[in-house]
Fold this sequence. Notes:
six-stranded mixed β-sheet; five-stranded parallel β-sheet; 24 helices; 18 strands; 42% helix; disordered C terminus
Amino acid sequence: FVIDYLIDLARRSGTKFMVRLVKGAYWDAEIKRAQVDGMSEFPVYTRKVYTDLSYLSCAQKLLAATEVIYPQFATHNALTLSTIYTWAKQAGVSDYEFQCLHGMGETLYDQVVGADKLDKPCRIYAPVGSHQTLLAYLVRRLLENGANSSFVNQIVDESVTIESLIADPIAVSRELGGSPHPGIALPRDLFGSERKNSAGLDFSNELELQRIAAHFEQCSKAALHAAPLLHGTVSAGAARAVLNPAMHQDVVGQVIEADAQDVQTALAAAENFAIDWQTTAPAERAAILKHAGDLLEAQTLDFMALAIREAGKSLPNALAEVREAVDFLRYYAAQVEHLPNTLALGPVVCISPWNFPLAIFIGEVGAALAAGNVVLAKPAEQTPLIAFRAIQLLHEAGVPRGALQFLPGTGETVGAQLVADSRVKGVIFTGSTEVAQIINRTLARRSVAENIEIPLIAETGGQNAMIVDSSALPEQVVNDVLSSAFDSAGQRCSALRILCLQEDIADKTLEMLHGAMQELRIGQPDRLATDIGPVIDAEAQANLQNHINALRAKAKSFHTLDLAPACSDGTFIAPTVLEIANLDELKKEVFGPVLHVLRYRREQLPQLLDQINATGFGLTLGIHSRIDETRHTFAHRRTHRFHRGARPCREYLCEPEYRRRGGRGAAVRRRRQVRHRPESRRPAVSETPATQSFRQPGRAYRV
Length: 703
């Protein structure tokens, strides 16, 4: 269709122009990206022979229109070249050329160029630039031409026969019948027979974008509300408005929060229903969770619209939020589907954060339900609407009201009362380190008073660092920094907070980073062009701005972006880079789009690792280096002293023991004041069948 359009354009405009035909690049990346993004199919062929056939079909169209098109055939494939040459000669066409990359295909084109050869011109593409700027490009070209299926690679492989090299792609394709490669799973089948992959959306498709925009328009007109969902009578309280953090004049909905009586009602119902849900067969629980995953996927746009309006999520992040929630439900269902029924804890409290108001909320709730626990779910105060809708969906899927109750409200009222009650047998928490420590102390006191083990599974924040030495590729560093530090407005527990640059490359990297930041777009998160949306509320905005103002006065360098006037109606913070002299200047986690830069000398690397370790956080760490010595340094530190973040997974247990995630500060390990069991003192990196059964799905969304 593209070639037909170009031929028509040339004829209508009366202009003859060149058309370069190439087989493309980055095939493996296109395949993997489509799988990860949950596309319905691949944008490229899964068999090389189909690509060769498509190329020849396009070549035929170009050769048939040489009165308005000058074809340029870029190929290093001798069979493709010979076929095109033969077709052109038969058609009496001579107005075309071949092309090759400098340094590649020379042996082939020695037989093409010249009056005593095929007498066809060959244009040579030669990249121009410095070694530093061209090295990455040349390596990519070598990798592509060195692929197993590449003609350039196969022609020097003695195990490949001449017959297979010159096999007619038309005949081979007809023999295969157009069937895809059996060894390459379609995106929906990425996880094999265990579970379906969650479905994505193609934001490059204009028709898809029109459909999304129309659906969002309808969603914006809906009157949304949230209230406690209990297996009993609910108190009638006053409603409060939930505002869009990007546009405060947009009232997203109303929420009625639970009071002390609602909490008591929920606790009594959970205690009474615990044995009913625990004795429900794991296969039945799994079927309900799978059904919930399917229902959620069918309502992807509804939940995306809520995530954007209530939590300020950008379009890609809102989609990832829903897909992760779907994956959680299917994953935990698959883990318990074929297991025998085991003893559950009983009533479990799940307290989730506002920065992942659906994914983490569903992850906590889904894991606890799968393991046979009844759940008391408390969402973040800022995002009750999307959580309310998620609970409704789980009830619709078949989770009994007694097994899953919803208690919106403040941490001081609802959360504290739940955690302190003796009927609660476990807590799953994601949020700040400070709150996790409060919960930890409360449960420790209860453990002593009640003489029982009370599991706490807590994921908290991180003072996450990236260490970059002089061997790193600056372009890749900058891409990773922009993504990690500023995506989701820096509101991820794993977001980059401290960029450690070796002095030798610090100035150049910072110059490149500042330039790249200018391309970021800050604004309404429902626009596809927007890269960075708002922070969650006025309190977060004020805390971040106070931190920036305090550090700016003593920062070695400072760079930020200007906010557009349209951002004044929301709680926006511009992406900011501050260069500090010492890690001691950071007293706590800064949860927003603020990046701190620290320079170091090569010989100071061991001391730098000690300083990072001394922060008390250990969630994630990034390393950009191509030097083996650096890798060995980190490996030694990880083994002996350096506390490195755990794998990007969340581990939930169906047995009364804890497992921490993310290393020091990223999770809370309660020091038991009752009898200790050996299994409760396993190191954070240990693996047991229980932890392996409850690991997070393969997509690492927040890393």
